[in-house]
Specification:
GO molecular function: hydroxyacylglutathione hydrolase activity; metal ion binding
Largest sheet: 6 strands, mixed
Helix content: 25-40%
Shape: globular
Protein name: hydroxyacylglutathione hydrolase
Organism: Leptospira neocaledonica
Pfam family, one: HAGH_C
Number of domains: 1
Distance between the termini: 40 Å
InterPro entries: Clx_II_MBL (IPR035680), Glyoxalase_II_hydrolase (IPR050110), HAGH_C (IPR032282), Metallo-B-lactamas (IPR001279), RibonucZ/Hydroxyglut_hydro (IPR036866)
Number of helices: 9
Radius of gyration: 19 Å
Length: about 270
């Protein structure tokens, strides 16, 4: 089974970096490295080398660790084909469906999925264990109780299509590894839209009991589907629809999932 280590960086954007290691080959990958010194300390403490860097997309807070890590470890930088020339040191364009860190028996690997929306050079990684989806590294596509914005080179309709095609039907036990810790803020936004959602209230209560900047809740997609409004739009309850209509000041807004999703993204941009 692949080993996953999450690094929280106390940056203004609350970034997560992930280290993923295949225990047989001892090959190690850094996903969206932020602070090269912080990452190097973890690698040294674990006696791990760094073979690969993967940037989910081209935004600086997901690539700013590349220079330091490439300089120190000579790691190969993997990215979406459209990220080459935009991402520092990116040299290997990834194909959709490509396998990374595959174990010798083929039972464990990371599968590349193209996920445009936040940007058009965005990829996510699906962790496969024994033939089944186990976790997904989502960069800035899916967050806890949220999705990425589309204001820096993206498009909300494209993001909606990506969520429908790549995430809507994922098994409920799949773990979510997002690119940022926005959990509490996103839950507060969700409650501002739909204050009667008990699952959201319970989730916020749980999140607020975690040690600040030390403990993080790794949610599953079954949990997200009870309080993430961008998933709730697929089976919209009247409270959610009314909340969106009131916030948009548009009482004629339809309950079509795509319409609600795009309206929510617009509201979150301003919140």
């Amino acid at each position: 089974m692949l080993e996953v280590f999450r690094i929280y960086t106390d940056s203004p954007l609350r970034n997560f970096t992930y280290l993923v290691r295949e225990p047989n080959s001892k090959k190690t990958l850094s996903i969206d490295p932020y602070d090269p010194d912080q990452i190097s300390k973890v690698l040294e403490n674990k006696s791990w080398n760094l073979d690969y860097i993967l940037n989910t997309h081209e935004h600086n807070d997901h690539t700013c660790g590349n220079d330091g890590l490439v300089s120190k470890y000579g790691a190969k930088v993997l990215a979406h084909p459209a990220g080459l020339g935009k991402i520092p040191h990116a040299s290997h364009p990834l194909e959709e469906g490509e396998k990374i860190l595959e174990s010798p028996d083929g039972n464990s690997y990371l599968k590349v999925i193209y996920t445009p929306g936040h940007t058009f050079a965005h990829i996510c990684l699906l962790q496969i264990e024994n033939g089944s989806a186990y976790a997904v590294f989502t960069g800035d596509t899916i967050f806890n109780s949220g999705v990425g914005n589309c204001t820096r080179g993206g498009d909300p309709k494209t993001l909606y299509d990506t969520v429908v095609q790549k995430f809507k039907e994922l098994p409920g036990n799949v773990r979510l590894y997002p690119g940022h810790d926005y959990l509490k803020n996103n839950l507060k936004f969700s409650l501002s839209i739909d204050p009667k959602n008990e699952a959201t209230s319970l989730a916020l209560s749980k999140a607020e009991k975690l040690k600040e900047n030390q403990e993080f809740w790794t949610t599953t997609f079954s949990e997200e589907r009870t309080f993430n409004p961008f998933f709730l739009v697929f089976d919209p309850k009247e409270n959610l629809v009314s909340g969106i209509r009131n916030k948009m000041q548009n009482l004629s807004l339809t309950s079509d999932p795509q319409t609600l999703f795009i309206a929510l993204r617009s509201l979150r941009d301003k919140w």
